[in-house]
Amino acid sequence: MAVTVKKGTDDFHSVIAVDGRFTFDVRDQCLAVIDAVPPRARRITIDLTRTDYLDSAALGMLIRAREKFKGAQLGLKVKAKSPASEILEVANFHKMFRYEAI
Questions:
Q1: pTM of the full structure
Q2: Residue 62 has pLDDT above 80, yes or no
Q3: How many domains are there within the chain?
């Protein structure tokens, strides 16, 4: 499991990528990555296209990111019909976030 932050399409876009299982075990790593997002970021994408599974702690981390980045455009990118997308849809996260299923 890896959580990373990288530059997006421009200097004002950051991408947080979560690879593998997004669970309570990576809480500290996720918080560190959220804190590492440059303050100039005005658009943040949380890329879950390589995420195999999310637990309730991961959903909490997404809510926390939403609160931290409330001044920016925040979106989720998921693989359509994946376990992660199904969990997010059941939890109605597609209604709380800008949501892109690819």
A1: 0.86
A2: yes
A3: 1
